[in-house]
Automatic annotation (TrEMBL):
It comes from Caulobacter flavus. Coiled coil: none annotated. SUPFAM superfamilies: alpha/beta-Hydrolases. Keywords: Hydrolase. GO terms for molecular function: hydrolase activity. InterPro entries: AB_hydrolase_fold (IPR029058), Dienelactn_hydro (IPR002925), Dienelactone_hydrolase-like (IPR051049), TAT_signal (IPR006311). Residues 57-285 form the Dienelactone hydrolase domain. This is Dienelactone hydrolase. It holds the Pfam family DLH.
Length: 288
């Protein structure tokens, strides 16, 4: 799953521009931030988070007005932080959450890492992503996850008496598993949408981390991912059962890899909205 041959061809978002995403930095105690967007429901801020490996650029979303809310970390897909994931962060914040969306590849490049249209069927386009993906390692993800959880907990709007949720798309699915294992005392909910590599033969396979977590899981599987690796869902269910972790693992019939992300060639609004409803149900039940 999440291999180049399973990805849809074209991914397009005409709003993507490096100018729109440029970070105007102003030092605030090790944090660089500027207000990038605000409306009557959500305040969006570009932030830079200090991690053990460098300075991670990210987008932070908070409900407008006074109050405290549970926090959520969103791991984006292989194309990393871009407008569609900012939209997701904004939508989730409007539902009552403090939301962080980091750039997966901050070690080598600031977001957006891809400008305009990207075609997975084009070898030259794929070659732009390949070296970036190698910078995302299991060990580095664990370090990042702890830094991001600490950053969310440091926000005055975060209700630290409530647990944190984490969700991931494509390669972000495994990163969500790792986050739950790295910070088991804080992560109560994990959601993976068309996640790739959740079960592998490697000793670092995400599914092997399930016993280390204290979270409830929502695993939404793409139909073509399931057809390619039909045993993955069964191995996940078995791993959850053995670890006694509550989990929902379901295949979305007819929905292809990437179906939840707008701009994807296979985006399916009906199925994506159902997945979003399932996500909000998970958070309402667990982030307390």
């Amino acid at each position: 799953m999440c291999d180049d041959d399973i990805h849809p061809g074209l991914v397009h978002d005409p709003r993507v521009s490096r100018r729109a995403f440029g970070l105007m930095t102003a030092a605030v105690g090790g944090l660089a931030a500027t207000a990038a967007h605000a409306d009557d429901k959500v305040v969006e801020t570009d932030v830079v988070i200090k991690t053990p490996d460098g300075q991670a650029d990210a987008a932070l979303f908070k409900p407008a007005g006074k109050g405290k809310w549970p926090a959520v970390l969103i791991w984006p897909d292989v194309m990393s932080l871009r407008p569609v994931f900012r939209d997701m962060g904004r939508r989730l914040a409007a539902a009552g959450y403090v939301v962080l969306v980091p750039n997966l590849y901050y070690r080598v490049k600031k977001a957006p890492v891809i400008d305009g249209t990207f075609n997975f069927a084009n070898p030259e386009d794929r070659a732009k992503i390949t070296p970036l993906r190698t910078t995302v390692t299991p060990e580095g993800t664990d370090r990042d996850a702890l830094a991001y959880v600490a950053f969310l907990d440091a926000q005055k709007e975060t209700d630290k008496g409530r647990k944190i949720g984490v969700q991931g798309y494509c390669m972000g699915g495994p990163l969500s598993f790792r986050t739950a294992a790295a910070a088991p005392g804080r992560i109560a909910a994990v959601a993976s949408f068309h996640g790739g590599g959740l079960v592998t033969a490697d000793p670092t396979s995400p599914h092997l981390l399930i016993p280390k977590t204290h979270a409830e899981f929502l695993i939404e599987v793409a139909d073509n991912d399931d057809k390619k690796e039909p045993d993955v869902k069964d191995k996940l269910k078995a791993a959850f059962a053995e670890a006694k972790r509550p989990a929902k693992v379901e295949v979305f019939a007819g929905a292809a890899h990437g179906w939840t992300v707008k701009g994807s060639q296979v985006y399916d609004e009906t199925a994506a909205e159902q997945a979003w409803t399932n996500l909000l149900d998970l958070y309402k039940r667990t982030l307390r």
